[in-house]
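Let us walk through a complete example step by step. Step one is to write down the protein sequence. Step two is to encode the small molecule, flavin mononucleotide, as a SMILES string so that its atoms and bonds are unambiguous. Step three, shown after the inputs, is the structure prediction itself.
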Amino acid sequence: MKFLVFLGTVRESTPPRPARLGVRVANAVLECLKQRYPDHDVELVDALDYPLEAVFKPHFAYPKSRAPSDLNLLAEKIENADGYVMVSPEYNHSMSPALANLLNHFGSSLFSYKPSAIVTYSAGQWGGMRAAVGLRTFLSELGCLPVSAMIHVPRAQEVFAAEGTVQAGEDQEAWFDYFGRTLNQLVWWAEAARAHREQVDPHKLVRDFKTDPSERNAP
Ligand SMILES: Cc1cc2nc3c(=O)[nH]c(=O)nc-3n(C[C@H](O)[C@H](O)[C@H](O)COP(=O)(O)O)c2cc1C
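Step three: the predicted structure of the complex.
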């Protein structure tokens, strides 16, 4: 199976320090997935690699052949993935605006009927809990339902070094066990959803709306 790990920070400047704390957390998640699920394909999607236009124009707003190639490529990756990990900092008690903006560029039909896992972090003591609450609603609307367990990393700068390895004094096994609860749920649901998608095509059973969300309205 194939999993995409989205990293939702595009900050390069300081303060606060360190910038892009999320790189450490995303690298740790990638390492944990690779160690525990070596047979699955895991790819990082770094929001910083997708400099988007200031005026919002999502992938689905372009005529099919005219969408920018990086958006086309990412749409294809999202469609072909079996599940998603969303790594988000907490900004003003909310999920990362950069992650929301990137995800908003793609229609929910690409994400739907697959599971997702929420990973939040912060430099402070709450580990991005409040970002996670909003992220749950956001991902549910995209149709990639978040699994019940979540990963929160408080004071992430004290836990992980730049490459995602743990800092001296931290117990990597204990952290990966904690990560594993969420990632195991993700992989379990992804396997179940994939097997069932192969039997029943959800997009035929539940039609995606084509032009306007009102197509889903009550009569
Ligand atoms: C605009 C902004 C808002 C922030 N809001 C919060 C917050 O609400 N809660 C929190 O715990 N940390 C907050 N922080 C601190 C972040 O946890 C810290 O800067 C972290 O490094 C952000 O992740 P990043 O470096 O990967 O972007 C905020 C930081 C910024 C830049």
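Step four is interpretation. The mean pLDDT is 96.
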